[in-house]
Amino acid sequence: MSILIKKNSAAFLLIALANLVIAFAGYFVLPPRFFYDSAIIIYDKLNEIGYFGSYPLTILFYKITGLRYLPFPVIALVQFPILMYVLYKIGIPDNFEKINIKNILIYLAILMIAIFISMPSKEFITYLYVAPIVFMCKNKQFTLKKTATLSILLLIVFGAIYRPYFALIPVVAGGMYLISFVNFKNKTVTTLFYGLIIAFLLSLSYGILKGEYFSEMSREFVNKSRIGSADANSIIISPVKPDTWYGEIVAIFYGFFTVNIPVNGLKHILSPQIIVFIIWQLLLFYILLVRFSKCLKEKKKYQYELFILLIIFSFFILQGVFEPDLGSAIKHKIGIFPLIYFALYYDRFRKELQ
Length: 354
Prior knowledge:
The chain is mainly alpha-helical. The protein is built from 16 helices and no strands. Helices cover about 70% and strands about 0% of the residues.
């Protein structure tokens, strides 16, 4: 009996298998800096293991699962198929085998998954944690209200025990959603602008209470000791020191454009991996922005995609506040890739929801 595989599924399988080889070989060919976080997670020399915080919980996860006791290439053989299975369960678009801009972005993203989060990684946990949000959007038994409520709870819990800025995503997303009902001339740009203002107001409130602003206590603090080092060629340093309210607002806008529209990163012409990310990021941001504009005009028709896009763009805004460099920006975006994947192919998935 012959088994027929559709072209789109065959293309997905071939791409997944090819990148499985890359994931396995990564340990032998990638420079040591790619494994700094992995070494902290696996060896836990500072005894950080615990129940709160991204490093402590990740270390605990790899210990409980037994993955920390396996060689890195074997870990890749375990993790990468799991990550691909999540995408497979979300769904493969009918024209996945065809060469177009959207598919190329996905092909490159799968390559990034193989390179960046097939090793011991905090993003592996993030990827699996946000995936249920997509599955709730695809499940007809979940209304949008129920999906939104559970997703907000998931993000708040994740922020409380793992990555604090995830708890801010519902605040920024909710604010942008409310702003989108105001009849501005350019609703898309204005909605994003006010999303950035909301992030600034959150940082300002924190600064009043704690004496330092978000980007000052995160990005600037991390990068202060890295300036001039060999691994600091892609760090993000604000042109204005963020120790005043006006410095912080400049830092937030600068960070947002640097990690999402990183044309200033073209100066890294001798770092091909950075240039590839810049091109990928520019195309991704443009396509998502066009889809966001479409969803804002037809909220009811594209209600689930609008919901996902509000989460994605809120993440992009907050990433601009906390992200220390372009290298980590890639990893963190891949961490929420199930959301991006769903948003890019929503037209295909919307048919299942009707």
